[in-house]
Every structure is written in structure tokens, then in C-alpha cells.
Amino acid sequence: MARQLLFKGSPKNVTGPELKAGDAAPEFACVGSGLEIVTLASTPKKARLFSVVPSLDTSVCSMQTKRFDDAIASLKDKVVFYTVSNDMPFAQKRFCTTENLQNAVTLSDLHNGSFSKAFGVGLEGLPIPLTARSIFVVDKNDKVTYAEYVPEVTSHPNYDKVLEALNAAAQ
User: Fold this and answer.
1) Distance (Å, rounded) from C-alpha 43 to C-alpha 68?
2) pLDDT tens digit string along 120-163?
3) How many separate helices (H) and strands (E) can be counted in the chain?
4) pLDDT at position 116, please?
5) Which residues of the chain have a pLDDT value below 50?
6) Strand 144-149 relative to strand 134-138: parallel, antiparallel, unpaired?
7) What is the rounded (10 degree) CA torsion for 91, 93, 95, 96?
8) pTM for this structure?
């Protein structure tokens, strides 16, 4: 049976594997705000927070991104914070500028969906491709130390657990 999450109360199949703490972080190819290709291998070898959202143009996604942007300010030199969505890089950049975000690095999976496939966050059965709300903390050795697939995509992740895991990975 396919893995499912809820989207506005309706079950949706999710593509790809379900990653767990201890798994090797998979490779991907997303597009950064300067239209450059960003891969796992090209990210800095330090703790990385991958905050996956369906779209920055929704309230929960916006709040999630702003909350992590604020929360990691004190860890700035020890971690990198990525927000991943299928939004266009131009829209992601506009969002970060409008919201005055200082720490978020945006990655668009619209390029080829490789992040969604590799991290198991692609939602099926919707009229447009969206990513399932999820969180991944990856340490400097490219190991997943925390993975959370939010059961109802329109709900918030467990911010306290995410930040605890990120702090541990940053040590």
C-alpha cells in the first residue's frame, strides 16, 4: 500500500521513500534563487535544516519559514536553513525580500522534482505538483538526524523537536 498523508483532510499518496534518522541524506538537484543548480554535495558540510513546504504563498508555509528564519539566527554560523518548495525561484526570492528573511536559503524543486522523489515528499492526486510539509535535519556527514512528515499537510511541524535536533546536529 502506498504511503499517505492528509491534504485538507483528504488522503493523498506520497511518492518516494520515507526517510528516518540514521539514513544517508539522498542527493538532489534543486534551483537556487540565482537560478543555479544546488545539490546535496554542493551544500556546506555543516548542520542543514531542510524545511519543505507546499507553497510559500500560503499562511502555514509562510509562518513556518519565518519561524525557522528567526529561530536559527543564533546558530547562523553553525547551520544552513533551506526552504524547499515547488514555487518558482523568482517567487521564493520575492517572498524572502518582502518578509525581510535573513537566514533562509530557498530551493525550488520545480526543476525536476528530484528532492521530492529522493526525500519522499511528492504529493500525488493534486491538480499541480506540491511537496508535502516535512522537515529534515542533516548533519555535517550527510546523515539524516531528524525526519518529520507532517501527517496533515496543512498543519505545522513540531518546531520544538526540530530545533532540538538542529541544535544537536550543530554541535
Assistant:
1) 18
2) 999 999 999 999 999 999 999 999 999 999 999 999 999 999 99
3) 4, 11
4) 96
5) none
6) antiparallel
7) 170
8) 0.96
Residues known to be catalytic: 61
C-alpha 84, offset from chain centre: 4
Cα angle 4, 9, 14 (rounded to 5 degrees) comes to 20
pLDDT of residue 1: 58
* Three-state DSSP class for residue 95: helix
Q: The dihedral of CA 169, 157, 99, 106: what is its sign?
A: positive
55 DSSP 8-state letter: -
Instruction: Please report where in the chains the cell 534563487 appears, as a residue.
Output: 33
Instruction: Let me know: does 26 contact 115? Beta carbons within 8 Å.
Output: no
Beta-strand pair 130-131/122-123: antiparallel
Max Cα distance, the chain (Å): 43
- Tell me 73's DSSP state: G
Q: How far is CA 43 from the centre of its chain?
A: 14
Beta strands 47-52 and 79-85 are parallel
Residue owning grid cell 546558530: 75
Name all domains of the chain by residue range, CATH numbers in brackets: 10-170 (3.40.30.10)
